[in-house]
Amino acid sequence: MHIVGSIIKGLIDLKDKLSPESNPTEEQKNVLKHLLETAENTSFGQFYDFSDILSASDVQKSFSKNVPYFDYDKINTEWWSRLHKGEVDVTWPGSPNYFALSSGTTGKTSKRIPVTEAMISAIRSTGIAQVSALSNYNLPPTFFEKGILMLGSSTDLAEKEDHLEGEISGISASNIPSWFKGYYKPGEEIAQIDDWDDRVQRIAEKAKDWDIGAISGIPSWIELMLEKVIKFHNADHIHEIWPNLEVYTSGGVAFGPYEKSFNALLGRPITVIDTYLASEGFIAFQNRPETDAMKLATNNGIYFEFVPFRPEYINQDGSLVPEAPSITLDEVETDQDYVLLMSTVSGAWRYLIGDTIEFNDVERAEIRITGRTKFFLNTVGSQLSVNKLNDGVKHLENTFNIKIPEFTLSAKRYDGEFYHSWYLGTESSIDTSELASAIDEFLRNANKNYKVARTKALKGVKVSTVPPSVFYDWNGANKKKGGQVKMERVMGEEKFAEWEDFVSKE
Description:
This protein has 17 helices and 18 strands. Mean pLDDT is 86; it is low at 1-12. Helices cover 34% and strands 21% of the residues. A hairpin with a 4-residue loop joins strand 14 (351-361) and strand 15 (366-372). The protein is of the alpha/beta class. Helix 10 packs across helix 11 (219-232) and helix 13 packs across helix 14. The N and C termini lie far apart (54 Å).
């Protein structure tokens, strides 16, 4: 009998039963009050008179009325840049011990996002809440004795002035609690290797020494790692090496496009759990198997606001117009895309993270990521979210029985007329005109705006296919392999021209 696993599973079940029923809207009010009180005497808090906001009859409305929206460029120029000049108590008490480096999916220049000890603690607490939610899944007691392989960025953080810098996954892994270190793989030594290919090679070499029950990371890089391990050991699938693998914790991007190619690497089905960890904080996680939606972390250092995603509220660069209306958690509805705003224990205030979400269940505060404010394909009025694009690619996979783990597209002009130009990452040989016709028909039926656009400015669809490795090489050439790096699903014309030039050379 697996006594240790049974005890851990029992404790998780008991904790879940004893935990009070959450009230997300009340939790959010308390989080905002805590944020404002803690930062009241910072330069930011004094400038925007947090004391006055706290004395208002409706603190949430007063906060949204008196503090403007910030994207990274605005808050960094006006406030966070002062941290690099040695100032303290700027947007949060003291100075951050870490800065998370993030180039996102839009550029080569890294953002430097402050990560405080309070945020480290919040990320850890949300992680524990996610582990507790495993009681909702039918996992055997033996699972809770197995190793957990976390494939993020390097934990070898760079020392800069009075702080450390690295990607958020590396920062988080370097701060794992001591009780977890016995479960954590690949271990501190391998996790510190900066070169992603070298790190994966070491993982492959050590793989048979580990009894892995769960893996965690961005789907594209997890797939490449699994392929490397399988090939290194001349196996048919990963369960020949890790027979007790039961759970994959995904994150960063929608898992849907990777589902078919990912499952091809398994010997049997496993539980897939979505998470939403960004450089700005641990935002949400899937906490029950009945849905693939994720529960917002409403009681852990982040206050959320939501702006209805409408063209009149969004500038061309994806930022919000100042007069765009925001609403609170108790005002949201289902079947509506929202721009997500965050105020956090790292001193981000009404911060535009760049993602759009929709609510699957308002009462439970469960969401799905629908896209990026910059990445809605709306050049010619088609208004396609990344979710709809993912659905279209999944339709192609099912229709033609192929795997397409990666794709990107742009609204591109050919002889003065716009076409949606797709690049699909697949090893299969399919007539591209058939692919173009199939995805065009699917999107016409799935999106009324797209259907209208196809009768007007959008003249047609063009499809090219390339091996999935081209997408990984592009990311490696433009940013860095592994970690939080994700592929742009939608590109502007200038970036798309760079992509096509890269593909032609490949």
